[in-house]
Amino acid sequence: MKSILNIITEEISGAFEAKGYDRSYGKVTLSNRPDLCQYQCNGALAAAKEYKKAPIMIAEDVVSSLKDNKLFNKVEAIKPGFINIDVSNDFLADYLNDMNKDEKHGFEEVDNPKTIVIDYGGPNVAKPLHVGHLRSAVIGESLKRLARFVGHEVIGDVHLGDWGLQMGLIITELKKRQPELVYFDEEYDGEYPEEAPFTISELEEIYPAANEYSKENPEFKEEAKQTTFLLQNGHRGYTALWNHILNVSIADLKRNYDNLDVSFDLWKKESDAQKYIPDMVKYMKENNYTRISDGALVIDVKEETDTREIPPCMVLKSDGATLYNTTDLATIVEREKLFDPDRIIYVVDKRQELYFEQVFRAAKKTKIIGDDVELIFQGFGTMNGKDGKPFKTRDGGVMRLEYLIESINEEVYSKMMENRTIPEEEAREIAKIVGLAALKYGDLSNQASKDYIFDIDRFTSFEGNTGPYILYTIVRIKSILKNYEKITGSSLKNGVIRPYDIESQINLMLEASKFNETIANAYEELAPHKLCKYVYDLSNAFNTFYHENKIIAEEDKEKQESWIALIKLVLEILETSINILGFKAPERM
Q1: Residue 471: which of 583, 375, 370 has the closest Cα?
Q2: I need a labelling partner for 117 at 20 to 30 A (CA). Which of 98, 181, 186, 255 fits?
Q3: Measured distance CA(515)–CA(256) in Å, rounded
Q4: What is the mean pLDDT of each run of 10 residues along the chain (589 residues)?
């Protein structure tokens, strides 16, 4: 079904056309003065110049043709040319009843689904997830779910960093510590052990130790470079160790992403793109897309219209070695071959914008991807501490993500137990659900490109614009519905929403009716924060309605049944929305 805004716009556009004006002036928006009206149209102001008439005269013309339209309760022209609109309560109730009959609450999926690859996650193997990985995972997951709800075919790719010098450093450090391992025996030609010679904890300690040691010992770093070269050229022992590193790391990464309720369709790696590089580089050279600059192979991507410096995109270093640029371009080639995508969305720290601008331009200029394929950089800001600087532990280190989740869960648990008595085990489980909502909503309610302050006290509050407040609202509605069924013995199915002229009810109905346009707008702008705002506004509207009306004690049974039908729809909309955002609600709190 059409969004309520589209329905109103069609009526107003028809009225413009009926009076001899272009119907494009009939666009309707939500009112920026809800104290005056529900919706507004400013088209008369824009039309005044074309038709050489005062905007108020055009507005009055349009309004005059809508006097008998049953869709509206009020349509009035206000100087200098605004058209203020209130829909009729009957129309609003009919619209919500139609929403109630549909599995997606009336949302119409796109007619032409696109194939979309979302690149999010991006951790390096052999390292633990830390707070710097949070935003990519949380934003990417919500965009994946949002795009799927809209009707697109979406492929989420973690895109692991598993190639390059870090692998050489780890293997060289391991050789320094355990030279007797069979992987370092050049004469060995048997099968290598199935079990890794290290745990995830040991592996996570090895890399930073090797990295630090290489800074003070250039000969060690040179050995690591040679190890990297041998690995990338198929050394048997090093390849076996590399596979161990991958297996141990990925098992740990999956456990941590599970705790975030984040999942990927693909666990692709940088190394997967390596096989595409030789042919890609050959193609670029043969088609004169590249040039030599100080011995390096580069692609010029600067355009005449640029107002800032855009350096060339380097494809090969002067020694013939590849770079991240090379791998990312080869990954685009791989995705084109495997999925033929219409869009590729990269959910990455906004500080990498210039880098991705170079890569995207190089991909388009060399035609390794079609002009019709959208390459989208979805940059996000940093999560900062209360000092306004990137979030750190008390001792100045980068906090592991699992420790951050534990601290959130503990804070939620403490707040829950202040005023409630819930069995320990159940309280801990509820705290995990609420803690995840606090963490994800705290992040997603901010515009992705903006930095934000991580405030554990505010994020875990059960009041205000927070995840726990949203969940508490959902749990409250669930409780009312259970009590209604228990007391009346009535089913919750087939309820009809009726338009009682009660301000808090009409406001709640209006908020519920905005679901379709909110979803469409949030997807169009890749803006989960807009869905968060809607969820918060809907929760506020429900809580106002709840406090002003005694639903369970209502003696008018028809009115009570109507209210039950309304809040049941609100519950379903809220649960659908938070599922898109990537969290869920418990049965009680």
Answers
A1: 583
A2: 255
A3: 32
A4: 94 97 96 93 96 97 94 96 97 96 93 97 90 95 98 98 92 96 95 95 92 95 95 94 96 95 96 96 97 97 94 94 94 98 97 97 97 97 88 74 94 87 90 97 96 93 96 97 91 87 96 97 98 98 97 95 97 98 95
| Helix runs in 422-556, H state only | 424-444, 456-459, 467-488, 503-513, 515-524, 528-548
What sign has the CA pseudo-torsion 409, 413, 415, 416?
positive
Q: Which domains does the chain have, with CATH numbers?
A: 4-87 (3.30.1360.70), 115-158+267-384 (3.40.50.620), 165-259 (no CATH)
Q: If we measure between CA atoms, which residue out of 493, 495, 516, 503 comes closest to residue 89? A: 503
pTM flag (> 0.85): yes
Secondary structure of residue 321 in the 3-state scheme = coil
Q: Where are the alpha helices (DSSP H) in 65-181?
A: 89-100, 134-150, 165-177
Local structure of 78: helix, strand or coil: strand
Contact between 118 and 141 under an 8 Å Cβ cutoff? The reply is no
Alpha-carbon span 378 to 442, nearest angstrom:
19
Please give the Cα distance from 482 to 469 (Å, whole number). Answer: 20
